[in-house]
Specification:
The protein is mostly helical and 80 residues long. The chain is 66% helix and 0% strand.
Length: 80
């Protein structure tokens, strides 16, 4: 068994067992707020569309955050 210590944190960022097999399902439940039953009733194509939407929404959010951060830096530096 792999043990973690202060100097060796073990496997970071690895999902094992059923979690990795159901990652898309749980991502849809968490990010879109649908119930597990609703997500389980989705077809593969519906799940791929849902994850595409989640990715697009996160890209949009990150782009606006970067824009506002650049505007804040511009204003703080005395430029418009």
């Amino acid at each position: 068994m792999l043990q973690s210590s202060k100097n060796s944190p073990g496997k970071i960022g690895k999902m094992g067992g059923n979690l990795s097999a159901h990652f898309v399902l749980w991502r849809i439940v968490k990010e879109l707020g649908v119930t597990l039953s609703e997500a389980e009733g989705m077809t593969f194509d519906m799940m791929m569309e849902a994850t595409g939407y989640i990715d697009m929404r996160l890209d949009h959010k990150n782009a606006w955050e970067a824009y506002y951060e650049s505007r804040k830096n511009t204003v703080n530096n005395g430029s418009n």
